[in-house]
């Protein structure tokens, strides 16, 4: 009888908590118990250093992060260009999972990286689509502009109409 051996390379999981100046990350490798912490400044040199260190593992790499404003876009673009699989973690799901795991609403970047890694391990992640690569950035910018204009219009309307409505003689 022939033995069939199927080897599957488990991906390296990378959880990154994005912030304005620096990103806190956590790397987990399937056959190792210890996780590696890392800090990446939002600079091209650090992006390249991270990409080089992840490529050295010789395994597929899956990176997950929470989208925070526009701060995640530069790092995500460089990681996708390097060929890594990118995943997105919902902000609401991250907050609820953090509360459930740590029995606290207290938040910090290393703790969020641990929670993101936990969510990756249980498969609670979404696909990430880069708007520049997909060609949807124009739609996003128009949507943001519409939102700003609508809020400004409502604010102006309340300033002009509200004082006159409340004064009756």
From TrEMBL:
Query: Which InterPro entries does the record cross-reference, listed alphabetically?
Result: Transp_IS110-like_N (IPR002525), Transpos_IS110 (IPR047650)
Ranges of residues in domain Transposase IS110-like N-terminal: 14-121
User: Pfam families, from UniProt?
Assistant: DEDD_Tnp_IS110 (PF01548)
Q: Which GO terms are recorded in the biological process aspect for this UniProt protein? A: DNA transposition
Q: Which GO terms describe its molecular function?
A: DNA binding; transposase activity
Domain of life of the native organism? Bacteria
What is this protein's name?
Answer: IS110-family mobile element-associated protein
């Amino acid at each position: 009888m022939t033995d069939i051996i199927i080897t599957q390379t488990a991906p390296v999981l990378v959880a990154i908590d994005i912030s304005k100046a620096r990103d806190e990350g956590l790397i987990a490798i399937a056959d190792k118990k210890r996780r590696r912490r890392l800090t990446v400044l939002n600079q091209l040199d650090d992006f390249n250093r991270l990409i080089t260190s992840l490529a050295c593992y010789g395994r597929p790499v899956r990176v997950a992060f929470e989208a925070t404003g526009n701060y995640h876009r530069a790092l995500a673009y460089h990681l996708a260009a390097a060929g890594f699989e990118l995943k997105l973690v919902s902000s609401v799901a991250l907050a609820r999972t953090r509360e459930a795991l740590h029995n606290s609403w207290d938040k910090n970047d290393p703790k969020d990286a641990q929670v993101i890694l936990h969510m990756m391990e249980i498969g609670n992640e979404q696909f990430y689509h880069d708007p520049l690569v997909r060609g949807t950035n124009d739609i996003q910018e128009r949507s943001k502009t519409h939102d700003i204009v609508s809020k400004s219009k409502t604010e102006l309307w309340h300033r002009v109409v509200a004082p006159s409505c409340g004064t009756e003689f």
